[in-house]
Amino acid sequence: MNQTLVTQFLILGFSETPGLQMLLFPAFLLLYMVALSGNLLIVLLISSSPALHTPVYFFLVNLAAVDILCTSTILPKLLGSMVAGRTISFGGCMAQLFFFTWSLGAELLLFSAMALDRYVAICRPLHYGALMGPRVCVLLASAVWAVSLTNTTVNTVLTGRLPFCGSNVVKHFFCEIPPLLKLSCAPTRLNEAMAFTADVVLALGSFSVTMLSYGCIIACIIASILRIRSAAGKRRAFSTCSSHLLVVSMYYSTVVYTYFRPASSYALDKDTVVSVVYTSVAPSLNPLIYSLRNTDVKAALRRVLSRSRALCAPRGPATSPLEGGQQAPPRASLP
């Protein structure tokens, strides 16, 4: 009772290895620039290309928006803490926790929506237009954002109501649930139960839906994919699936490792490295994985670049009225 409540936190970050600061700053700056520019480019390409106005690219735009939200919540503050103060106010910490948890839940649910879209496209191609129409896609995306918003609201409110009256040193590079629970001077069983429940529902639930969808896709291979005569058609059908599975495997493994354990088992050296994967590396790799392996996106990029070059190309000199065989108007005679 004699201790003062914490009003700000000290983000420890990577200060325990100061010799790496000069290497980590440009690395995280590069990751942020790649993630921001890559995801913004995907949004621009899909929005400006009518040929890409399909369900799979609609969900890809949502995924790009989630990655922009995640990296913009974490990396600017991290970069600032490397060159300036490492403190963050209590309200700023809760805001960072809110938006990060929101993006985390939305990304997990979007993976399931994208897996369902691939299942319908490959196993039910004749009914794809009816089953994945614009209204269905909007409803799925709205549900993704709404469910993840509910999850982050509950967990942020529960964390914000905890009393922090001891150490204010967050042994992490941003405000996340496990390291914050370790600083509380009150029991955190309810918080851990809610975080565990959210991880079971969002992470394991979404992962189960994704794996079930791809299990059905594999079962449909002989019936649908192998009927495609051209090799290019088969590659196009598997391209999005392989890219999606690569991202899902990397993302789910790190998230489950972080949130599927009690907060007391949090360790700075191991968990910080794992958190870097789903806060910085994955949002940077998503645009590269989904675009460089996708012929439609590359074709849209070439069209946008060609239009840009055409607009920026210097125009030829304006022709005078006397050029092109035109005769000069007769001069007015003097009176």
TrEMBL record:
Region spans: Disordered: 315-335
Topology with respect to the bilayer: Multi-pass membrane protein
Transmembrane region(s): 20-44, 56-75, 95-116, 128-148, 200-226, 238-260, 272-292
Location(s) in or outside the cell: Cell membrane
Keywords: Cell membrane, G-protein coupled receptor, Membrane, Olfaction, Receptor, Sensory transduction, Transducer, Transmembrane, Transmembrane helix
Gene3D superfamilies: Rhodopsin 7-helix transmembrane proteins
Ranges of residues in domain G-protein coupled receptors family 1 profile: 38-290
UniProt xrefs under InterPro entries: GPCR_Rhodpsn, GPCR_Rhodpsn_7TM, Olfact_rcpt, Olfactory_GPCR
Purpose of the protein: Putative odorant or sperm cell receptor.
Protein name according to UniProt: Olfactory receptor 13G1-like
Species this chain originates from: Equus przewalskii
